[in-house]
Write a structure and sequence with these properties.
CATH architecture of the largest domain: 3-Layer(aba) Sandwich
Distance between the termini: 55 Å
Order of helices and strands: HEHEHEHEHEHEEHHHEEHEEH
Helix content: 40-55%
Strand order of the largest sheet: 1-7-6-5-4-2-3
Largest sheet: 7 strands, mixed
Structural class: alpha/beta
CATH class of the largest domain: Alpha Beta
Number of helices: 11
Shape: globular
């Protein structure tokens, strides 16, 4: 409809008012967050929103704490802003989640931001309200920004609940930049639309940065996003149910393979598999698996953890079954 109506021109750099208002209403209704439309900036994907947030808040010499394993783009976004990424390793024992004391131990006088991703890629970890509150308490002591990447918020399973960090308290709200988008929940990957909601000063800075770089996100895509937010939400529940079925199948299969381990993911659509007992680096394992079994996985080295590889269940169950058959046979040869 937007294309037929000729909505193919420039829009305000931060997005059309109708979409920014719809996002503000979504954040209020779903996340318990009170933002005015002026505090919402629509960008070319959630990744773009993350980068804009880092550019708006971090300077050369600043440090940004990133729990590992992490989404591959975070460190380079930080470096592009002239800041320095500081990694905090996590472990299976702690369900791949950073503890508040780990965060505090990694802080220095140069720490400017913490990047949180819950539900997480590649781990599938979902932080509890109590875990997030403990982290906020540490950040608030030194006024450290929290970039909260919540792109997988609709994909949580079992008893896990998604909690937006900014909803925890006024302190959390004042320090948090909330990032989300349409690629995962609405499967609108090619539409390239994400957004952030932030304190007014940060939102203004992001708007200025975007106006001098990419300008507005695609005009007709923005109208599609309005339709997604205000339309029937049942397809999201149906999609989550399908992912849950695939998740259970994949984890059950992996649990029966000797010499590899995994934590059952509570969110997103990935399983992080620990292959350290097999004696190969993650890149070596991935290369050999591809050449010998025609199965593609992402080596954990890309996520800052060379003990692991990432599998995805964002594909059909038939493909998952075939891939896991080959994966299991390959592991038996090692």
């Amino acid at each position: 409809d937007a294309l037929e109506a000729g909505f193919t021109k420039y829009t305000p750099s931060a997005g059309i008012q109708e979409l920014r208002q719809a996002i503000a209403e979504k954040l209020a209704n779903d996340n318990g967050l009170s933002y005015r439309a002026a505090q919402v900036i629509v960008s070319n994907g959630a990744k773009h929103s993350c980068y804009n947030a880092i550019l708006a808040t971090c300077q050369p010499g600043d440090e940004v704490i990133i729990p590992a394993p992490y989404w591959v783009s975070y460190p380079d976004m930080v470096r592009l802003a002239g800041a320095e990424p500081v990694f905090v390793p996590t472990s299976e024992r702690n369900l791949w989640k950073m503890r508040a004391e780990d965060f505090e131990n990694a802080m220095t006088p140069r720490t400017k931001m913490l990047i949180m991703n819950s539900p997480g890629n590649p781990t599938g970890s979902v932080y509890t309200r109590e875990e997030l509150q403990a982290i906020v308490d540490v950040a608030a002591e030194e006024d450290i920004y929290i970039l909260s990447d919540e792109i997988y918020e609709r994909l949580v399973y079992d008893d896990a609940k998604h909690v937006s960090i900014a909803s925890l308290s006024k302190e959390a709200y004042d320090l948090t930049i909330t990032v989300n988008g349409f690629s995962k929940s609405y499967a609108m990957t090619g539409w390239r639309l994400g957004y952030l909601a932030a304190p007014e000063a940060v939102a203004r800075a992001v708007d200025s940065i975007q106006s001098h770089t990419t300008s507005n996100p695609s005009s007709f895509s923005q109208y599609g996003a309005v339709a997604a937010l205000r339309g029937d939400q049942q397809p999201l529940a149906d999609m989550r149910e399908e992912f849950d079925m695939r998740r259970n199948y994949m984890f059950d299969r992996i649990s029966k393979i000797s010499n590899v381990t995994a934590v059952k993911p509570q969110g997103a659509f990935y399983v992080l598999v620990n292959i350290s007992q097999l004696g190969l680096t993650s890149q070596n394992f991935a290369d050999r698996l591809l050449s010998k079994a025609n199965v593609a996985v992402v080596p954990g080295a890309a996520f800052g953890d060379d003990r692991t590889i990432r599998l995805s269940y964002a594909t059909s169950l038939d493909v998952i079954k075939k891939g896991l058959d080959r994966f299991q046979d390959f592991c038996r040869t090692l």
